Task: structure prediction
Amino acid sequence: MERAPLLQPDEQRLTDISAIAERRDQAALSRLFDHYVPKIRSFCLAAQPGANLMADDIAQEVMIRIWNKAHTYKPESASLNTWVFTLARNARIDYLRKNSRHQSDIDPEYLWQNIVDENADPFKDAQHKRDQERIQQGLNKLPPDQKEVLLKVYLEGKTHKEAAEELSLPLGTIKSRVRLALHKLTIYIKR
Amino acid sequence: MINYHPSIEILTDYAAGSLPLAHSLCVSTHLEHCNECQQQIKKLETLGAHLFDQGHTEHRQLSNLKDSFFKRLTEEPEDLVESPQANKKPVNEDVMQWDDYKIPNSLRQFITKGYNELNWMRLSPSFKIATLYNEEGGAQVALTRIKAGAHMPVHTHTGDEITLVLQGAFSDESGVYRKGDFINRDASHKHQPIVTKDAECICLTVLDAPIEFTGWFARLLNPLIRRYHPHSH
Ligand SMILES: [Zn+2]
Result:
């Protein structure tokens, strides 16, 4: 019996996402579920510790979006992790908006759809891969105080100002920690 | 040519999803005009994805969640598949153009036909304002429309103000602001802007309420916290 070649986990996930897009492959969705749902849940629990029902709801919503939108994913413009992160971010915003006493009339669906890529550009593609590697390596070397602030902003959903209040630090200190971190990761080069 | 961009802090909070929605609306509108900030956002999202990926994984049994998810997917697939038009207001390009201005995508949830359809309130012969919405206890989101060559009225406010130029241009002692420019002023800033003489100026403005921001997530989450922890108070 012929064996399927063994793929690297991230290559397997790329194969899975196109299997969903092309032939509604539920086994592929099942593998993505196992990989991403725990991450999405901890992303939600970071913002709201203990809110397991909310985390379950958002995780399912993201999996539904993956199922429905797999055909819109473009590997040349973003990694699969980045795509799923943006889906989780938007689903978390939408959930909080709809389930809050202070319901907002602003529909977040309209706000994060504008980053449209020009046609695939081999130069940009290569640059994107370099950005990926630099960020990955740089993150592991960041001083803990800088990483702490990044985690507050990205995972706990705090603004710079809220992070400052929570850590009892001046806003200026938070800003400079984020700037230093972004600079080290070569994400931000001062204009 | 865009000269005024959101600060890196605002862009980071936007990419992370922690920026209040009213402010995100201004950033989103700016991005439609600004390739430079779009590239910056892409990098910031890549960072978010790495932090997301490193998130510690809990050892919780998720098989029940998975079973019910796939049961739903198999039994009610129609409910889960969204039609492309769902939730989207119809956009008619012909009508969109009738007052010669293209409405940014980010504002189409509020403006379906054109700026003229809005409920403009005349505050002076040269100055009109249309409220898009008021966040309860939060920000006020509005459009301002000022005739060519006119002064903007002096106003006082205690919170920050974000202005995004949609059409035309205005200037103050610090510079000239054109279509797509993103201007963030704190309450202490005193300025008296003048619209350039060649055309009227339409701006999107977000004014933080005079009350102290207690934090967007905090405000949104208070009712949730009560719901999930009914005995914690
Ligand atoms: Zn910009």
About this structure: Residues B 2, 5, 30, 34, 36-37 surround zinc ion (CB under 6 Å). The two ends of chain B are 54 Å apart (CA to CA). The helical segments of chain B are 8-16, 21-33, 35-54, 63-75, 77-80, 93-96, 216-228.
